[in-house]
């Protein structure tokens, strides 16, 4: 298994999501069909919100595959969706889905719906003939079986003996009391308010306590008193029949409440909060119900399985067509994943996806495991996108943990796997997390969560030229790549060694100790990473052999008695061999036919060892308090008098291992105890090991097989007294045939690496000189960073050969786009493409006139570096079928609530929110009046936001003109119709229109434009060096992101000229004419605007935020100094309660400063 096995002393059930809903199509072009994979899907909030956000007439085909390892989550989801399809009352659905206590009417509706579903789900064939089947599909027969089992449990719970019902109720009551006592303030649901989080903290904390006290979201006594029945959908989960509902769950988390608080004229009450959430829920369910009768009803598929296992099964089907890979659905289960042949067939369920959402799986299985599993399923199209997300904060700096979790430089990872976070390249994001930063900076030591979402795309898809075709996979020097991969390996596992752990965590020891049980990676995970890298780079066998020889040599050279890695070497070698990556030299010596292998016909390189652990031997773990031991990682080992080898890729389940076959051909069948943890069966563990370990190191009679707890600091602190210094739970002699079984381990099926994407070579790229090869990657001297990328052009063209070979002419190099450079040799040109944005201004040449080649060597680029995406950070890509805004997410303006500029205390939250766009670096540039185009753009956007909302400069202003600071020429006019909440991105948007001015247009609109200047109260905004060019690039993205009611026709200027924007010149129009005069209802509201409506194009302008994992955003309060003595706080600085602008370390300093501060102290 890619993720370590852990002892599940405490399981948490998440029937309700812990973050607000998002639109899963926010980065897809309008109308492009969406094949969406949700891993760790949880509740259906984002599925429902996506359908609602699309609107009733979007025309987009939606196909969702929802995967979760807890069938109870999916059973609840199907229950809700079928009730919505049946048009059940939204109030009843709300009660059933969110309340853990029900009134009799809601309980009856729940039971009736479950009985209906049970009657339709006897088999996949029955389900597929039901009325729900066109829109709700099952990926496996096992999925339907498990869902049906839960629906049956829900029905049968009312007939349980009073003792069991009483135990359930007591467990709920205990947790309720603990929560009420433990949580005074909770940020969980306030997170959905974004910049208004602080405004809602008090009332939402009150709502949280009320929910856990009553089990409902009602505030009136009568409704609360009527809810007396425990909701069975909160009782059953993977943990069996018990209360495992997570203590931090809040029914309001999925919903967007920013507009409620932001538009409020007074204090928001508990009743208003609940009403707003129920209103959104009703709207989402209604949208889903309406969508079922549309010409393209959405399809929602369900898949019970652990995320990485489900991904492997889907990838195997995609690569080989196999429906049954032999992968268990999850740990503690023996059921193998078998895809439904009725679903997975040509033209059936998708196995590649243009949207993959991984929820916050990163917190549970590690970011690299998420990428390793999901990247192979991402469709090779220019618009495909993957979302990764984390909530937990375990290190020293929450803002930098993302890059630490990659275990390598992001540029390196981007080139290795072909995906990169877009904000890493563009240097900004349109999704705000400034509220997370504010809470983190304010509370720091008390913060355990920091919400971080990253959007991953192929690095070349943001290039208008390179995105149009396939780019050759880069090449590496085998020695360098082997060194790089070894360093990643060390980063993953170095803290297994105690000395390294203590040295690395001196400054963060408390958190590090608590988190030491949260190991995310096994040697199998690393093998899967190498398999992904090898297949993505399409390395030749010779180069790959060099890579692995270098890796292995470093591995062996680093061995020492103080390193734990020696104990894991055989595990690593076994995984390398299983996945066809490398055969270590010791495998040339076959295991002897002795011991457990004595009667075998054929001796394999690998064996599977099965260990039966009697149930009573688990008592030290089973009888320990969960809060005491946590969830320690487990492993198996092979040990003797003089050898010890540990294996982390272990699979377990409760039941019986029944030996079958013969001595020469042994096999075992497993009979699972479906009672699981509630039963009394033995635990059966299995793992793969080299066969030679059983015969060549020691006598088989001296060897034992063990099952135990991994030696982590947390485990040592809590379990040595129970298990002894070895932390071994149980062991049996290898020769004990009643407890140990040994089977030959067959080789895994070889997966053929995918061919290059099928879309054609970019037509815009010229190849007049010769042939361009793949980019050769050179790492720095430490083999940690990309030093350069080199593309060799073999000179083939006869004219070019004559020019280059017989004269001293030096090729000229220019950069066309982030990933494409042009080589000019006389009048012959050759375009060369790189697999990552590059800095063309730093290029150098290697010329071989005799061998006839030109090598163009450039450094890789990213945000804050020259060239690369800085050439155009806001690209709109023509995919052939549609236009895609690469770095700015799409919005459906009609679905976004209007921001009321007359709301009470609007400036208190909006001003700091739009003021938080710039990083500390950009603020310094602004202060020193340094030139930076993105900083200038942000400054101008800030002016538009604060003036159009009226929070600065007096009255509300809605008409703005961009004027060139040097010439004073007016180039662009903005008409702001409304301000809106961009709810799922935690920010705001200006809904308006843009009028790019040209000399020709000014003649045509002379009269209405003159009237506008006289009557329109226009605000002139000066734009500075390079800024107008950036605005010309940005405007097409701001237009395209909100396009819903019009299409780009055949005569579209973008298509005809093959460029977006059409121009970057002053007093020229960068936009095509397709959207001109469309959706202009807002222009009709203002007299002087009306006659200009045919000439404007609708835009959605939003803040562009700095990226917190790349730059410092917002000032750490601990960095402030006292206004009087310039010292830090004692222990924290306090702000003047009147003006909130001046800080003091103590009352004494405040008194000293009062005389000077009093005249300036104004709120």
TrEMBL record:
**Signal sequence, renumbered to the chain:** none
GO CC terms for this protein? nucleus
Top-level taxon of the source organism: Eukaryota
Write down the PROSITE patterns for this protein, in alphabetical order.
Answer: ZF_MYND_2 (PS50865)
Keywords attached to this Swiss-Prot or TrEMBL record, sorted alphabetically, are:
Metal-binding, Zinc, Zinc-finger
InterPro entries hit by this protein: DUF4470, TF_DEAF-1, Znf_MYND
Chain ranges of the MYND-type domain: 1122-1161
Question: Could you give a GO molecular-function term held by this entry?
Answer: DNA-binding transcription factor activity, RNA polymerase II-specific
Q: Pfam families per the record?
A: DUF4470, zf-MYND
**Coiled coil (UniProt feature):** none
Task: Kindly provide the name given to this protein in its UniProt entry.
Answer: MYND-type domain-containing protein
Q: What is the organism of origin for this protein? A: Jaapia argillacea MUCL 33604
């Amino acid at each position: 298994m890619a993720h370590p096995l852990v002892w599940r002393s405490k399981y948490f059930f998440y029937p309700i999501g812990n973050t607000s809903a998002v639109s899963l199509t926010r980065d897809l072009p309008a109308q492009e069909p969406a094949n969406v994979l949700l891993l760790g899907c949880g509740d259906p909030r984002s599925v429902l919100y996506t359908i609602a956000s699309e609107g009733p007439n979007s025309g987009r085909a939606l196909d969702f595959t929802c995967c979760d390892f807890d069938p109870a989550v999916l059973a609840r989801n199907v229950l809700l969706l079928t009730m919505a399809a049946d048009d059940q009352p939204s109030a009843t659905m709300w009660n059933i889905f969110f309340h853990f206590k029900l009134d009799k009417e809601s309980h009856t509706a729940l039971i009736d719906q479950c009985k209906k579903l049970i009657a339709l789900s006897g088999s996949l064939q029955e389900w597929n003939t039901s009325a729900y089947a066109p829109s709700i599909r099952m990926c496996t027969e096992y999925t339907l079986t498990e869902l049906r089992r839960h629906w049956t449990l829900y029905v049968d719970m009312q007939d349980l003996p009073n003792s069991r019902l009483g135990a359930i109720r007591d467990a709920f009551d205990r947790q309720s009391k603990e929560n009420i006592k433990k949580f005074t303030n909770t940020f969980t649901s306030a997170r959905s308010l974004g910049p208004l989080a602080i405004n809602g903290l008090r009332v939402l904390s009150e709502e949280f306590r009320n929910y856990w006290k009553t089990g409902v979201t009602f505030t009136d006594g009568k409704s609360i008193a009527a809810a007396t029945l425990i909701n069975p959908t909160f009782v059953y989960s993977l943990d069996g029949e018990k209360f495992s509902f997570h203590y931090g769950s809040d029914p309001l988390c999925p919903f967007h409440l920013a507009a409620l608080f932001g538009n409020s004229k007074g204090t928001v009450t508990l009743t208003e909060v609940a009403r707003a959430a129920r209103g959104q829920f009703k709207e989402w369910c209604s949208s889903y119900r309406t969508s079922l009768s549309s010409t393209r009803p959405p399809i929602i598929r369900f898949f019970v399985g652990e995320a990485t296992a489900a991904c492997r099964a889907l990838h195997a089907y995609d690569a080989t067509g196999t429906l049954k890979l032999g992968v268990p659905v999850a740990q503690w289960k023996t059921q193998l994943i078998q895809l439904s042949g009725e679903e997975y067939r040509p033209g059936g369920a998708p196995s590649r996806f243009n949207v993959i959402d991984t929820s916050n799986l990163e917190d549970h299985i590690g970011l690299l495991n998420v990428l390793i599993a999901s990247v192979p399923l991402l469709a090779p199209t220019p618009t495909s996108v993957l979302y990764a997300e984390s909530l937990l904060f375990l290190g020293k700096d929450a803002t930098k943990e993302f890059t630490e979790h990659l275990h390598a430089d992001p540029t390196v990872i981007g080139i290795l796997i072909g995906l990169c976070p877009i904000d890493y390249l563009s240097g900004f994001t349109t999704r705000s997390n400034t509220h997370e930063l504010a809470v983190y900076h304010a509370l720091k030591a008390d913060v355990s969560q920091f919400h971080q979402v990253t959007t991953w795309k192929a690095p070349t898809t943001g290039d208008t030229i390179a995105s149009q075709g396939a780019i050759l996979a880069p090449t590496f020097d085998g020695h360098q790549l082997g060194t790089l991969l070894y360093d990643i390996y060390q980063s993953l596992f170095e803290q297994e060694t105690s000395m390294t752990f203590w040295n690395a965590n001196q400054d963060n020891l408390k958190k590090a100790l608590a988190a030491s049980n949260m190991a995310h990676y096994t040697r199998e995970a690393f093998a899967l990473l190498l398999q992904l890298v090898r297949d993505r780079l399409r390395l030749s066998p010779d180069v790959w052999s060099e890579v692995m020889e270098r890796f292995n040599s470093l591995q062996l050279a680093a061995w020492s008695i103080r390193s734990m890695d020696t104990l894991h070497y055989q595990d690593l070698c076994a995984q390398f061999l299983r996945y066809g990556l490398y055969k270590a030299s010791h495998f040339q010596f076959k295991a002897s036919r002795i011991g457990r292998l004595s009667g075998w016909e054929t001796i394999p390189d690998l064996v599977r060892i099965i260990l039966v652990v009697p149930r009573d031997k688990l008592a030290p773990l089973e009888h320990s308090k969960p809060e005491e031991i946590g969830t320690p990682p487990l492993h198996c080992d092979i040990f003797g008098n003089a050898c010890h080898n540990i294996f982390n890729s272990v699979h377990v389940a409760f039941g019986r291992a029944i030996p079958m076959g013969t001595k020469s051909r042994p096999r075992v069948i497993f009979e699972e105890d479906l009672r699981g943890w509630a039963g009394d069966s033995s635990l059966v563990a299995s793992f793969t090991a080299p066969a030679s370990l059983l015969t060549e190191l020691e006598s088989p009679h001296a060897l034992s097989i063990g099952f135990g707890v991994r030696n982590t600091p947390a485990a040592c602190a809590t379990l040595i007294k129970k298990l002894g210094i070895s932390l071994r739970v149980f062991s049996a002699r290898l020769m004990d045939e009643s407890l140990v079984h040994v089977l030959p381990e067959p080789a895994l099926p070889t997966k053929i690496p995918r061919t290059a994407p099928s879309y054609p070579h970019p037509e815009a790229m010229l190849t007049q000189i010769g042939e361009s090869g793949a980019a050769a990657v050179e790492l720095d001297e430490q083999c940690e960073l990309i030093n350069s990328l080199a593309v060799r052009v073999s000179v083939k063209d006869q004219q070019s050969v004559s020019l280059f070979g017989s004269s001293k002419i030096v090729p000229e190099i220019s950069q066309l786009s982030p990933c494409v450079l042009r080589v000019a040799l006389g009048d012959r040109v050759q375009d060369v493409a790189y697999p990552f944005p590059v800095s063309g201004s730093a290029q150098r040449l290697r010329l071989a006139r005799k061998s006839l080649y030109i090598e163009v060597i450039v450094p890789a680029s990213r945000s804050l570096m020259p060239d690369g995406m800085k050439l155009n950070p806001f690209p709109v890509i023509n995919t052939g079928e549609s236009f895609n805004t690469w770095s700015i997410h799409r919005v459906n303006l009609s679905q976004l609530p209007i921001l009321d500029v007359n709301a009470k205390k609007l400036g208190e939250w909006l001003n700091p929110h739009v003021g938080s766009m710039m990083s500390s670096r950009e603020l310094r540039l602004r202060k020193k009046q340094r030139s930076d185009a993105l900083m200038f753009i942000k400054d101008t956007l800030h002016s538009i936001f604060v003036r159009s909302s009226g929070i600065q400069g007096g009255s509300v202003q809605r008409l703005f003109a961009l004027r060139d600071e040097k010439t004073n020429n007016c180039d662009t006019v903005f008409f702001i119709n409304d301000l809106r909440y961009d709810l799922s991105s935690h920010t705001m948007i200006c809904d308006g229109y843009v009028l790019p001015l040209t000399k020709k247009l000014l003649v045509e609109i002379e009269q209405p434009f003159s009237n506008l200047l006289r009557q329109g109260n226009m605000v002139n905004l000066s734009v500075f060096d390079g800024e107008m060019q950036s605005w010309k690039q940005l405007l097409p993205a701001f237009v395209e992101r909100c396009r819903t009611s019009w299409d780009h026709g055949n005569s579209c200027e973008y298509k005809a000229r093959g460029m977006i924007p059409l121009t970057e010149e002053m007093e020229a129009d960068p936009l095509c004419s397709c959207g001109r005069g469309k959706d202009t209802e807002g222009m009709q509201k203002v007299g002087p605007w009306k006659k200009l409506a045919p000439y404007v194009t609708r835009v959605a302008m939003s803040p562009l935020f700095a990226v917190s994992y790349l730059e410092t955003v917002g000032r750490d309060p601990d960095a402030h100094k006292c206004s009087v003595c310039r010292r830090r706080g004692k222990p924290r600085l306090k702000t003047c309660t009147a003006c909130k602008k001046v800080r003091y370390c103590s009352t004494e300093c405040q008194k000293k400063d009062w005389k000077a501060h009093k005249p300036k102290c104004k709120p």
